[in-house]
Write a structure and sequence with these properties.
It contains 4 helices and 2 strands, in the order βααβαα. The chain is mainly α. The chain has one domain: Multidrug-efflux Transporter Regulator, Chain: A, Domain 2, CATH 1.10.1660.10. Helix 3 packs across helix 4.
Length: 101
């Protein structure tokens, strides 16, 4: 079954994230958020990006880093999460392999 894709306009996304438009525009400029569409009026944001935008805003505010640094921090956190997931999968495979032996 395919997951349902929910998309929000720029205004809807701003309301959902409770973030000002200028912050969202900076996130798009830095590649933190990648909307569909060519121009702002056509932009559509996947609903799953709401959490990413809020996380980016917290990093920016709480750590006092600029938006470029926020983008880098998110990239590193995403990579860490991916590495942990892969590690968990490999451990499970190893445990099954050792149980067979």
């Amino acid at each position: 079954m395919n997951p349902v894709l929910i998309e929000l306009t720029f205004e809807e996304f701003s309301q959902a994230t409770e973030l000002p438009a200028d912050s969202l525009l900076r996130m798009v400029e830095e590649g933190i958020l990648v909307p569909g569409g060519q121009v702002t009026e056509e932009w559509r944001f996947e609903a799953r990006l709401v959490a990413r935008a809020r996380r980016a805003s917290r990093l920016h505010r709480d750590l006092g880093i600029n938006w470029s640094g926020t983008a880098l921090a998110l990239e590193l956190l995403d990579e860490l999460e991916h590495t942990r997931l892969e590690n968990r999968r490999l451990r499970q495979r190893l445990e099954r392999f050792l149980e067979q032996g």
